[in-house]
Structures are given as C-alpha cells and as structure tokens.
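Hi! If you just cloned this repository, the fastest way to understand the data is to look at a raw example. We've pasted two of them here, unedited. The first protein comes first, obviously.
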Amino acid sequence: QTSLSCEVTLPDLPTQNIPTSTSLEPGLLDLGGFASVDAHVMALVSLQAKQVELAKSPTGAQTVAADLVAANYSEWNSSQISCLDQLWNNESHWNFQAHNYRSGAHGIPQALPATKMEIVATDWRTNPITQIKWGLSYIKARYETPCNALWKKQRHNYY
C-alpha cells in the first residue's frame, strides 16, 4: 500500500455569512457539524497527486523536473537540463525506487544518506517529487548547475 503526502497551503477563505468555528483549522468551514474543505484546495491536492503519479515513471519524472527547473531555476538553460538528464539517468535511470544496497544511496538523485531528503518532506521514500526537489536544491547549493555536478560525477564517480 502506497501513501501519498502532499503539502498544501490553505487559502484565506471568505467569512461573510459563513458560519465558522474557532475550533476548526484554517481553511475548514463549520457546515452544521460537518467540516468542509474549499474546492480550490481539493483541486490543488488532486493536481499534486497527479504530478506525483506522473513522476513515478522516468519520462514523467523528467517532465516534472523540467517544470520545476523552469519555475525555480530560470538561470539554468536547456544545456543544464541535458546535463541533469545525463546525471540522473546515470545515477538512477530516473527511478524513484532506485536504491544502492552497498552505499545506501536512494532515489532519483541517489541521496546519501537518503534521510537528507527529509529537509524537503518526510515522504522521500515514495514521492519522486520530493526527491527531485531535494536533488535540484542540492545541485544548486553544492555545484551551482547540473553541468558542474555532471562534471564532478564524470571525474570522481560521485557528485
């Protein structure tokens, strides 16, 4: 059984003429004793779940990574995406379940130790998006670009 974990920020909801209870969490409404979540929030959760499922395939993971790079690392051009593809294809073949039993490295970026990915989310074992987000931030912090990380990998067999 696979469990998915999504981090969603609940929007501020309008409160005019809507009965609310101070004992409910933000984003929930008291509707005659039943809690309700805003449809927009449900749509966001659904979209995130679909992205996680997409990223469970190598091609889907590459698509999600390219989208994350475009959204968060705009200074990385298409050659950096190519380097990232080569790097992670060599590391894990973009398989979120990849695990090196000798070293303990895990996931698409082959994090070592794998628990490092907990800084993004605790679902790193099962969520390829968590792995991709961690891997991109690691590359940015340590090597500045995927091509620099690939260069390190080619010369030293690790990055």
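Ok, and the second one:
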Amino acid sequence: IELIFNILLIFFLLHFIYSKIKIFNTKVSLGSDLNNVSKYDILLKTLGFTYLNPHVYSDTVFILGNFSKNFLLNEKIIFGIGASIASFLFFFLLGYLSKILSKYAQSKKVWNIINLFIIIFMSFLTFLVFLETIN
C-alpha cells in the first residue's frame, strides 16, 4: 500500500508541476468590482474554497501524511504541531499581507517568480518521494 501511495503521490506532484509550467507565462488579471459583493457571498465563497478544495485534503493527507509515515509516534506529534503552526502562520500572514501585496499581484513578473518557486520546491519534493520509493 505504501508503494501505491508513493506512486500516486509522484503522479499527483508531477501533474501539479506540469500545470504550473503550463501557466507559467500567462497574463494575470485579478481586477474585479469588489463594491458589489455582499458579505454573504464572501462568507459562502470562503467556506467553499476552504472545505470544498481538494488540495486541502490532498496536501494534508497525501503529502504531509506521506512524509511523516516513517516517524515514531512522538515525532509524528511534533511534526503535526509544527505543520499546524506553520500552516496557521502562513495563512494568518497571507490574510493580513494580502492588501499590501495585492498591488504587486497584477505583475506578470511577480507571478512568474512565484510559479518558478513552486515548480522548484515541488520538483524537490517529488525527487525526495521518488528516492524514498526506489529504496
């Protein structure tokens, strides 16, 4: 079962990397009229993106679960606490910095840098999973 999950994870990561490479040089358009959006719509969309997003579950179950599967129980607990704290800090900072950083989000150059970082990081993770799979 571990081999099957590792292979599935490798395919998932390769597909994710491919999708980032495919959109690498696309034009960015984030402009929309936010004055006509109700608080109910914002709440509903936030809940939808949070709980209906398959990446939430795939990241948590497949990626983090896969990397922690060989840890001892106390290491798993520490890893889980660390991952939770990192996730909280990331989303907390992302939320508060979004207003400040939104003026840069229209730049194609900035998105290319972000996508390049994601491609490199996910390629590194894929390589680690591949090495673990062949061992």
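That's it. A detail worth noticing about the second one: The mean pLDDT is 83.
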